[in-house]
Amino acid sequence: MSFGDPNNPYGQPQGQGQQPGYGYPQQAPQGVPQQGYGYPAAPPVSPYGGGGYSGGPTEMPGNVKAARVMLFVIAGLQVIGAVLFGLAAATITAAQNDPKLKEDVQFQQLADFSTGGIWVATLAVLAWGILAVVLGAKFGSGGNGIRVTTIVFGAITAVLGLYPFLLIGLVHTVLAVLIIVFVAKSDGAAWFNRNKQQY
User: Membrane-spanning residues where (predicted)?
Assistant: First the structure.
């Protein structure tokens, strides 16, 4: 019986160095994690969080980027509208004190509008633009709540774009519908749900 014979079942196994003695536990080489009996290996821990699970896309999809840009465009249009409303309110306030215009019937009909109401409308238009900017800024880190809020924002913008300002609001309506479509698609949902932990 030779220990050098590769077919000898009692010989030293090939490719292994020194065997531990009988009764001593075997230890894994350094740097190799040991697994417990009956438990699967856990995924590696990511240094950026997430527990090693792939939580979805790592780059924002193109249609979500487009929706984000459209939110910023709506915000820009809202700022322009707020400036126009503010100028209208200031002009009406200044012209109400002009004695020449007090006899003008058309101006008096315009002056009957409350300048306070126009200032409130100016603030509402500006606040809607700020909300669009905040939503667009949260696209990079926001979760499903930002997605739902954006869809609601788009729906309200589309309706408001149709009713009071049909000609000017048509741009708002088209942009709002595109935002809803792009954010509601499956890759949009995957983007906003990417941070949910998977169990």
Answer: 69-96, 116-139, 151-184
Tokens of 42: 């856990």
In the chain, where are the structural domains located?
63-192
Q: H or E segment at 110?
A: helix 105-111
> Has this prediction a pTM greater than 0.90?
no
Q: CB neighbours of 173 closer than 8 A, spacing ≥ 6?
A: 157, 158, 161, 162
134: left (phi over 0), alpha (psi -120 to 50) or beta: alpha
Write out the H or E segment, with its range, that includes residue 77. Answer: helix 62-96
pLDDT digits (tens, 9 = 90+) for 122-174: 899 899 999 999 999 998 887 889 999 999 999 999 888 887 666 677 888 89
Contacts for 50-55: CB closer than 8 Å, 24+ residues apart: 50/195, 50/197, 51/197, 53/197, 53/198, 55/194, 55/195, 55/196, 55/197, 55/198
CB neighbour list of residue 35: distance below 8 Å, 6 or more residues apart = 41
